[in-house]
Amino acid sequence: MMTEKPQLEILLKQPLKAHYLFGITKKIERNHIRLDDATRFKSALLENIREN
Known about the structure:
single chain, alpha+beta
């Protein structure tokens, strides 16, 4: 169980099917993640968005 708060929430354009242990699947619309280097991730993400 995750006890730390997520640093980032990613909202998806369309729901995706997530596959969990024991064959459990679930549709997800958002994803929460924790990053080792949030500042570096944000910079890389913004750079990629500008290029596309």
